Amino acid sequence: WQDEEELVCFMNFSNRAKAQQVPVHIEEWEKLFGSADKEWGGNADGQRYIFAGKEVIVAPESIIVYKGKNV
Question: Could you give the maximum distance between any two Cα atoms of the chain, in Å?
Fold first, then answer.
C-alpha cells in the first residue's frame, strides 16, 4: 500500500454472516470497499470503522477491505 498504511480483507464464502477478529497491531481501520454494501446492489452496509481486537460481521458471500495506519 503506502508507507505506514496496511490493508486487511475479510472474505466470507459461506451463505451465512460470519464474525471475524480484527487485527490488533493497528488500533483503527477504515472501510474502503464492501461488496455487500447497498451502493453495489447488496443489502448490507458493513461497519465504516473497526477497532483492534473487536469483531467485524462479514455478510454472506462477500468481501470487505479496510485500511489502517501504523503510527
Answer: 37
